[in-house]
Amino acid sequence: MKAAAIERTGPPEAIRIMDLPDPTPGPGQVLVRVRAAAVNPIDTYIRSGGVAMPLPFPFVVGCDLAGEVVALGDGVDRFQPGARVWGSNQGLLGRQGTFSQLAVVDERWLYPMPAEVSDHDAAAAALVGITAFLGLVEHGQLAAGETLFLHGGSGGVGQMVVQIAKRLGGRVITTAGTPQKREQVRALGADVVLDYHDPSLLAQVREAAPRGIDLHWDTRREPDLDQAVAMLAEGGRMIVMAGREARPPLPLGPFYVKQCRLLGFAMFKASSQTQAAAASLLNRWMADGMRAGIDRVLPLEETAAAHRLQEESTVGLSGRLAGKIVITTD
Asked: Hey, which bits of the chain come out as E strands?
């Protein structure tokens, strides 16, 4: 099979298209014909060595996939050959990734794909959809009628957070950096969309939510916790999910006087049962029309270029991406 893989950690150019032996599913595993995969920031951190994880070389990159079942290992009873499936949490903790024509996946990390959803859309929504669910439901516990402030609504995670928060009955105030991106996020259902470059952002948020923000979610690598605490309502919650090297100051005085809570989580540390529960709701919502934004679709041969583009957007803050990069393996 053809695969985008590395033989050592390094820059995007370390990724090469290789001919690797077709994998064979073991007990509890499923062999999937991958039709689409998606690029995530975590993929670039693992490939570069920025996040240390066990890597079986040659290591196939990528977390997300969508495709159809080819063969089953012993003990698998949830799927049959030919079934359309999607999943995430691959390419992590020693598991091989998904940027390949075939992938072996533990049954517990795979989910049936709704007939209404394309391979591209399922792959694009996988990691970011589960991440958005975990933040809003599992950790942030957003309730109907509460106000969410989301810093960065046009990215992969951000677009899913906006849509899921609205389905949960929340009011969404979010930001984006260009008029086009602000219009894109507004079309997803956001109630108020602001320019994060505007120096009066805090004043605008206070005007839009005089009682304060119930749940603050910052998708940026360097969150401004002082500004976030100033936005929060009494008993407000704050989610952080990025910036492994970030050390922003936390204004403890205002934070504890407001009785606020700070919540952090990593998607890939959630149990398979928790992620399956997220996938079940995501399937219902995707069948009803929810989609992750796709910035562009590239062939497998351009995986290195896709990693470079993702890295420039996430680390270099280029702003060039407004959604996910999807890779096709045909």
From this structure: 2-6, 16-19, 29-38, 59-60, 65-72, 84-87, 102-106, 110-112, 147-151, 171-176, 192-195, 213-218, 232-240, 261-264, 294-299, 324-328
Query: Model confidence over 198-207: pLDDT tens digits?
Result: 999 999 999 9
Query: Please, what sign has the CA dihedral across residues 192, 296, 15, 329?
Result: positive
For 23-36, what is the mean pLDDT?
A: 98
**What's the Rg (C-alpha) of the chain?**
20
pTM above 0.90, yes or no: yes
Q: Which fold has domain 2-125+271-328?
A: Quinone Oxidoreductase; Chain A, domain 1 (3.90.180)
Nearest CA-CA partner of 171 in 131, 208, 218: 208
Q: Looking at residue 183, what is its pLDDT? A: 96
**Do the two domains 2-125+271-328 and 128-267 of this chain adopt the same fold?**
yes
The region that residue 100 occupies, defined by phi over 0 for left and psi between -120 and 50 for alpha, beta otherwise, is: beta
Per-domain boundaries in the chain: 2-125+271-328, 128-267
Yes or no: say if 297 and 171 are a contact pair by the CB < 8 Å rule.
no
Strands (E), 137-207: 147-151, 171-176, 192-195
Cis peptide bond prior to 58, omega within 30° of 0: yes
Tens of pLDDT, residue by residue over 32-62, are 999 999 999 999 999 999 998 999 999 999 9
Whole-angstrom Cα distance, residue 201 to residue 164?
A: 24
Query: Token pair for residue 305?
Result: 């270029």
Q: Is the CATH number 3.90.180.10 carried by domain 128-267? A: yes
